[in-house]
Design goal:
Blueprint lengths: L1 E6 L5 E5 L4 H10 L6 E5 L5 H12 L3 E5 L2 E5 L6 E2 L1 H5 L8 H8 L1 E5 L12 H9 L3 E5 L2 E5 L7 E3 L8 H12 L4 E5 L5 H12 L3 E3 L5 E5 L8 E3 L4 H13 L3 E5 L7 H10 L2 E5 L2 E5 L9 E2 L11 H9 L3 E6 L9 H7 L3 E5 L2 E6 L7 E3 L3 H13 L3 E5 L2 H4 L5 H7 L3 E6 L1
Parallel strand pairs: 2-15, 3-14, 6-7, 10-11, 18-19, 22-23
Antiparallel strand pairs: 1-23, 1-24, 3-5, 4-5, 7-9, 8-9, 11-13, 12-13, 15-17, 16-17, 19-21, 20-21
Helix pairs in contact: 1-2, 1-7, 4-6, 5-6, 6-7, 8-10, 8-12, 10-12
Bound molecules: uridine-diphosphate-2(N-acetylglucosaminyl) butyric acid (EPU).
The site of uridine-diphosphate-2(N-acetylglucosaminyl) butyric acid (EPU) has 25 residues, from helix 1, helix 5, helix 6 and helix 12.
Length: 419
């Protein structure tokens, strides 16, 4: 297993170019299963998750290659079965269900199970498929959805923690090939859902309202091949903006979209990290002291849960008390005890973490538990004095393209070593 060795205390300076969005790419890759014609997807980040999704497409019968950020898929003939080994490795693979059900009217997929950040049920996905007319059976760890035909209807997709991102993607994909009109109410408004809708429309689907809580899909008989470029990764961009603030540096973030990052930029400003727009770029800089801020994670356009851990590292450096409340995933605080190993003073009280910031952080060996927790530990290591070893960075490699190389180009002393 590989680790990062970080010698902290160096302010980051320079330019970084943001990769394509992992969470937009995954459902878009799955959507290529909806047509028997070839599709080309550009700006696909080369990560273990996207490589894995490429393998899943292959195992379902498609020809799929991912090279230099371009995915070429031809799903001429596909089968409807995805086994446990495929689904358990990446929870995001659940988004193959919608396309399989839409095209073949049958999908048999292993239940994904929970993960370190929470239970992650798929009840809302199944509720949506059922509303479209699919019969759902669960047996021996597999869920099967099947229908003679899918019929458009009105579906309310709100759940206990608000809308579901991949649930919205799944129902939207299945409904493109349903008969009649489907209206998804309480749909997820994330930019990744909008990007998927744009790709589906390029394939000949008829979707309006993506990006709002009401999405209307008028079913069509067939979808055709299309080309698409994935949006930039707003979570990767947020991670670099925060890293600039944490190290008291100045970083120009290129290729990201500031309009996708309003909640993050607003909180960074409150914390004393300015993010200035300069043409298509953003420049993050911190001059003075950091200030504590309270944060609650919310569905888009609120503060993203995928940036909660990184922001906690920043708040550990801000003198005073910050309260960070996690409203999307119930146990997404695994980074807290690892940050404590670096000297951070953080207490968990129910869904909130109380950060008593401003204590000096000193390097130590730490363990990454999930993707965003890993990014938080890297940020803390960059700001800490001495050497930090972040173990198990395979979590980080799932979602950040060449993070170590990008950080080195900004002056960070970081290298990848065998544990
Ligand atoms: N939920 C249900 N029932 C469902 C589906 C979800 O109760 O059927 C709950 C979840 O347990 C959670 C909330 O609804 O409490 C929101 O979950 P959502 O379904 O929106 O999450 P997801 O679609 O499975 C995607 C991203 C996550 C990101 C979340 C929230 C992908 C591949 N994953 O997951 O990304 O945190 O949306 O924005 O798009 C990451 O990149 O590190 C990551 C975990």
């Amino acid at each position: 297993m590989e680790s990062f060795l970080i010698k902290g205390g160096v302010p980051l300076h320079g330019e970084v170019t943001i990769s394509g969005s992992k969470n937009a790419a995954l459902p878009i890759m799955a959507a290529t299963l909806l047509t028997d014609e070839p599709c080309v997807i550009r700006r696909v980040p080369e990560l273990s998750d996207t490589r894995f999704m490429t393998q899943i497409l292959g195992s379902l019968g498609a020809t799929a290659t991912l090279e230099n950020g371009t995915l070429t898929v031809h799903a001429k003939k596909i089968n409807d079965y995805a086994d446990y080994d495929l689904v358990r490795k990446m929870r995001g693979s659940v988004c193959i269900m919608g396309p399989l059900l839409g095209r073949l009217k049958r999908a048999q997929v292993s239940l994904p199970g929970g993960c370190i950040i929470g239970a992650r049920p798929i009840n809302l996905h199944l509720k949506g498929f059922q509303a479209l007319g699919a019969k759902i059976t669960i047996d021996a760890g597999y869920v099967t959805a099947s229908a003679k035909q899918l019929t458009g209807t009105s579906i309310f997709l709100g759940g206990r923690a608000g809308p579901t991102v991949l649930g919205t993607a799944n129902i939207m994909m299945a409904a493109t090939l349903a008969q009649g009109i489907t209206v998804i109410e309480s749909a997820a408004c994330e930019p990744e859902v909008v990007d998927l809708a744009q790709f589906l429309n390029a394939m000949g689907a008829n979707i309006v309202g993506a990006g709002s809580p009401t999405i209307t899909i008028t079913g069509v008989a067939k979808l055709h091949g299309a080309e698409h470029e994935v949006i930039p990764d707003r979570i990767e961009a947020a991670t670099f903006l925060i890293a600039a603030g944490a190290t008291k540096g100045e970083v120009t973030v290129k290729g990201a979209r500031a309009e996708h990052l309003r909640a993050v930029i607003d909180k960074l400003a409150e914390a004393g990290v300015s993010v200035e727009r300069s043409g298509a770029n953003m420049i993050a800089r911190r001059k003075g002291k950091l200030k504590p801020v309270d944060i609650t994670t919310l569905p888009y356009s609120g503060f993203p849960t995928d940036v909660q851990a990184q922001m906690m590292s920043l708040m550990a450096l801000a003198p005073g008390i910050s309260i960070i409340t996690e409203r999307i995933f119930e146990s997404r605080f695994m980074h807290v005890s690892e940050l404590a190993r670096l000297g951070a003073d953080i207490e968990i009280e129910g869904p909130s973490a109380i950060v008593k910031g401003g204590k000096p952080l000193n390097g130590a060996p730490v363990m990454a538990s999930d993707l965003r927790a890993s990014a938080a530990l890297v940020i803390a290591g960059l700001a800490a004095s001495g050497e930090t070893q972040v173990n198990r960075i395979y979590h980080l490699d799932r979602g950040y393209e060449q993070m170590d190389a990008k950080l080195r180009a900004l002056g960070a002393r970081i290298r990848r070593v065998e544990e």
